[in-house]
């Protein structure tokens, strides 16, 4: 508490004199010009000297993409539909087979088959490329400690730097075209594979490896015949996540790919404000994501199973499937409708959807407007500009007496929080009260430096504090402090809502099996829907603006909070729960005094993932009118400015990495205090 008291006392004069000392808010831009010019110069030199090599890579990758696209377009839709249905049945049984068939038939009947097959061709090349490169990098990280440390930093950057930031150098190296989208998708999808390979190989029991070596296996044989098979379940999880990450890049890749795929269809209809068309095409991406997710997850669960299907049975099934597909192919030659869906049979209710939604908005638009206004004035604007400026803007002035009353109420709340949650509660109340009174965009940068520095030091020591302050200094001196504060305010609001709502839903799911069974497929659906698709209903119902961005970010980032909260509470030892009940604890007392404190490390890791998800949506949310770092990335992409794109992308990554380091350090510290094992996954 001594450090926080010093922060509070030092901050008071900074807030008081911030209008007189302009350097507290008008930040310097010492490094902006040199860094951006330097990056652009390096990029120009690199392109001038190595463009021939990247041209060769582009040609090499265009070959399998073109061939796969041609094959998928040549195959009759009936053959492809049945083939995927059989794969779904082999992966997870009848339910997945029926879902796969219905989803693919939707693509056929709505007339999106050609675009869907182009998207599948892109995923079919990008996902194996990302998985192969990721496997090699994961093996390297497993074998070398130095390589592992370097890879972890690189993976953090790859997963937090927005994809639009590295689209600019990719455009300069490869030019416009499908191959650029393919490479961007592979880069974005590579980190999950690397992490899972490193984790899977490191988790193989040493006794298993020793038994292989005692049997006479060489080092090479021990790796491929013992370690890799033992780590295969975890590696398959990486394959699943890689496929989903590749598909989530489909629309972003369409911005630069010039590919007649479903991503371009979504993007073009969104630009034309054609809600029905964008909703129907967005459903194609969502359904494709669910199919690929469940099929890859189903085969991953087969790998975990110790019961193998007899070889004869598998051979008979493959032979029967091949005969069925050949029969369908022959039939499609006789019946043209089985080869190409007739245009007059197309089911395309986009106009009816537009009419229905227009009627809904015209009839009940006031409800959406009221919700938007309430959230804006009660949450977003106070957090952005503060109560002080908000009242000034509406023509009301907060008198000194009312200001004093506000801070007296804050002091009382701090005392109450200190009594309930010790010193941490009082600090949290003080930080929230200051943020809402002054606004995050109006807080002097030295104050934020002190707050983050002390929090990082208490959570992870001097190293974490040094990293956090160095990262914030980079943002400050590159002139991106203002946009960064806008990003911080929007992410803070989204993360706070996700934390409260997601935590409550996770706690309810942990105590109610029926609700858990209901919320699980909802979480799966939300996690498989690509990011752009969230914007479609939000734009139509709430128009553009910060509120629309908030809704899209919350919808995308709330899932980890639900999952980790439920996982943390369900992982509590039953003996502890029984002891609490035996001591006379009520349900609420047990939940708040036993369950949540013990599950706090898992909950904090869920908060960490929620922050990462929210940051990854920043650039996507910029499409609905935000003016933060995401918008700066778009401007850099429009101007083909490599320096500005990378500088802005690194700033977003720094925010995510600082939050990640602090929360991870706090969670590990809390786990040690509670004597818990490391929490890896929900």
From TrEMBL:
Superkingdom of this protein's organism: Bacteria
Pfam families from the UniProt entry: BPD_transp_1 (PF00528)
Main localization category: membrane
Membrane topology listed for this record: Multi-pass membrane protein
CDD domains according to UniProt: TM_PBP2
Gene Ontology process terms (BP): choline transport; glycine betaine transport
Stretches assigned to the ABC transmembrane type-1 domain: 116-296, 484-663
PANTHER family hit by this protein: GLYCINE BETAINE/PROLINE BETAINE TRANSPORT SYSTEM PERMEASE PROTEIN PROW (PTHR47737), GLYCINE BETAINE_PROLINE BETAINE TRANSPORT SYSTEM PERMEASE PROTEIN PROW (PTHR47737:SF1)
Protein name: ABC transporter permease subunit
Organism, scientific name: Mesorhizobium tamadayense
């Amino acid at each position: 508490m001594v450090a926080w008291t010093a922060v509070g006392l030092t901050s008071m004069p900074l807030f008081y004199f911030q209008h007189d000392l302009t350097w507290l808010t008008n930040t310097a831009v010492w490094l902006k010009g040199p860094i951006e010019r330097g990056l652009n110069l390096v990029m120009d030199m690199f392109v001038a000297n190595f463009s021939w090599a990247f041209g060769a890579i582009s040609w090499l990758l265009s070959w399998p993409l073109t061939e796969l696209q041609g094959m998928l377009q040549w195959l009759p839709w009936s053959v492809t539909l049945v083939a995927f249905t059989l794969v779904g049945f082999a992966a997870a049984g009848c339910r997945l087979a029926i879902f796969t068939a219905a989803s693919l038939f939707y693509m056929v009947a709505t007339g999106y088959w050609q675009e869907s097959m182009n998207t599948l061709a892109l995923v079919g090349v990008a996902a194996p490329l990302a998985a192969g490169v990721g496997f090699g990098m994961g093996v390297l990280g497993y074998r070398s400690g130095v390589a592992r440390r370097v890879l972890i930093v690189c993976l953090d950057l790859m997963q937090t730097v927005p994809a639009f930031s590295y689209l600019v150098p990719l455009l300069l190296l490869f030019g416009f075209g499908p191959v650029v989208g393919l490479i961007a998708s592979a880069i974005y999808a590579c980190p999950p594979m690397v992490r899972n390979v490193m984790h899977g190989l490191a988790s193989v029991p040493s006794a298993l490896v020793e038994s292989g070596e005692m049997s006479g296996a060489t080092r090479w044989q021990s790796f491929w015949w013992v370690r890799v098979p033992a780590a295969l379940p975890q590696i398959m999880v990486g394959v699943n996540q890689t496929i989903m990450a590749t598909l989530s890049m489909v629309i972003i890749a369409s911005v630069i790919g010039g590919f007649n795929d479903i991503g371009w269809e979504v993007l073009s209809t969104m630009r034309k404000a054609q809600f029905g068309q964008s909703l129907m095409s967005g459903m194609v991406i969502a359904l494709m994501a669910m199919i690929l997710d469940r099929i890859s997850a189903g085969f991953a669960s087969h790998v975990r199973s110790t019961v193998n299907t007899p070889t004869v049975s598998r051979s008979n099934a493959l032979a029967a499937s091949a005969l069925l597909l050949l029969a369908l192919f022959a039939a499609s030659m006789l019946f043209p409708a089985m080869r190409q869906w007739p245009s007059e049979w197309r089911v395309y209710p986009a106009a009816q959807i537009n009419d229905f939604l227009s009627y809904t908005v015209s009839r009940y638009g006031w409800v959406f407007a009221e919700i938007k206004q309430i959230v804006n004035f009660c949450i977003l604007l106070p957090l952005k500009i503060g109560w002080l400026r908000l009242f000034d803007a509406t023509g009301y002035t907060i008198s000194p007496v009312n200001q004093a009353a506000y801070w007296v109420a804050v002091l009382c709340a701090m005392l109450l929080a200190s009594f309930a949650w010790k010193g941490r509660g009082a600090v949290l109340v003080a930080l929230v009260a200051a943020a809402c009174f002054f606004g995050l965009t109006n807080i002097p940068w030295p104050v934020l430096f002190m707050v983050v520095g002390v929090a990082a030091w208490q959570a992870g020591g001097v190293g974490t504090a040094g990293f956090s302050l160095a990262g914030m200094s980079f943002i400050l001196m590159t002139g991106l402090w203002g946009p960064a504060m806008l990003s911080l305010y929007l992410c803070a609001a989204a993360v706070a809502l996700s934390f409260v709502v997601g935590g409550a839903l996770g706690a309810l799911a942990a105590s109610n099996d029926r609700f858990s069974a209901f919320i699980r497929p909802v979480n799966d659906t939300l996690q498989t829907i690509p990011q752009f698709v969230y914007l479609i209903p939000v734009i139509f119902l709430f128009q553009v603006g910060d509120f629309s961005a908030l809704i899209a970010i919350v919808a995308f980032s709330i899932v980890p909070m639900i999952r980790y909260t439920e996982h943390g509470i369900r992982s509590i030892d039953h003996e502890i729960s029984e002891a609490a009940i035996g001591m006379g604890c009520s349900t609420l007392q047990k939940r708040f005094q036993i369950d949540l404190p013990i599950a706090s490390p898992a909950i904090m890791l869920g908060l960490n993932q929620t922050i990462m998800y929210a940051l990854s949506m920043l650039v996507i949310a910029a499409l609905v009118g935000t003016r933060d770092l995401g918008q700066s990335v778009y401007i850099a992409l429009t101007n083909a400015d490599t320096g500005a794109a990378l500088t802005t992308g690194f700033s977003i990554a720094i925010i995510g990495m600082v939050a990640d380091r602090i929360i991870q350090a706090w969670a590990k510290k809390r786990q040690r205090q509670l004597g818990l094992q490391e929490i890896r996954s929900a």
